[in-house]
Write a structure and sequence with these properties.
Elements (H helix, E strand, L loop, with lengths): L5 E6 L2 E6 L10 H16 L5 E6 L4 E3 L4 H4 L4 H20 L5 E5 L2 E3 L1 H8 L2 E5 L3 E3 L13 H9 L1 H10 L2 E3 H7 L4 E3 L4 H13 L3 H13 L7 H12 L3 H11 L10
Parallel strand pairs: 2-3, 3-5, 4-6, 5-7, 6-8, 7-10
Antiparallel strand pairs: 1-2, 8-9
Helix pairs in contact: 1-3, 4-5, 5-6, 9-10
Bound molecules: coenzyme A.
Length: about 260
Amino acid sequence: MNYENILVETSENIAVVTINRPTKLNALNRATITELHEAFKLLNNSGEVRVIIVTGTGDKAFVAGADIAEFANFNVEDGQKLAALGQELLFDYLQNMGTPVIAAVNGFALGGGLELAMAAHFRVASDNAKMGLPEVSLGVIPGYGGTQRLPQLVGKGRAMEMIMTAGMVTADEAKAYGLVNHVVPQAELIDFCKGIAAKILKNSPVAISRAIEAINANYEDGVNGYNVEVTAFGESFGTEDFKEGTTAFLEKRKAAFPGK
Ligand code: COA
């Protein structure tokens, strides 16, 4: 499939999705959000791709936010629609995908850019990365889940400070906060993420997708995550992956998971 604003490369069960609007520091306009939705949906349902890495083109920005030019003239209703549609198509969609998504944060991740990285299942940053939610400096608040996911990751007090000051944190600060898992030199970022992906690829894709579901349940209002875990755990015993995983262990060989 041909896209205008993103690049998708797939090799050995790993897809790299690159947001490709370098002249706008990869800012997320409506078209880019739609293309990302289409691409993630195709990859998630492909049966072939088992880990996705999302990153930005160039060495300066992951994503410098939602496209400010696009919403500058919006009214109240337009604003609500923008946030609701974006959350549905991209941010919530990504978070709930069964295929693991790693955000490779290769530079500025601001506003919608940090919100995109936070919707991914976990994050790795390059040493030049800078992250923040500067929306209040524009007179708006984060609208793509930032007020919810940032406190989940860094704690309420730090999230309050980051959002109120509209400031940026460095990659090392982000690691100390628990916002990113690793910080690596920029030139090594994608290979480092592929290395993590290679470890994930050894494991059961069915079990991984159910684990994502159970972990996410911890953050859903009115859902008992322990019950979700019990159900998903029980259902694991009915999968071909479970038979293969346990048989391979007992036969002292590496498992070749069918993904069913
Ligand atoms: N939306 C739309 N365009 C954006 C953008 C955004 N979020 N972020 C950057 N751009 C555009 C700039 O307008 C500029 O375009 P132009 O060359 O046509 O004028 C281009 O990307 C380069 O950005 P520039 O500001 O010149 O780069 P810089 O190195 O001086 O500054 C940043 C980099 C990231 C600090 C700065 O671009 C910035 O503050 N961006 C906005 C961040 C933000 O508030 N995001 C939250 C949005 S809700």
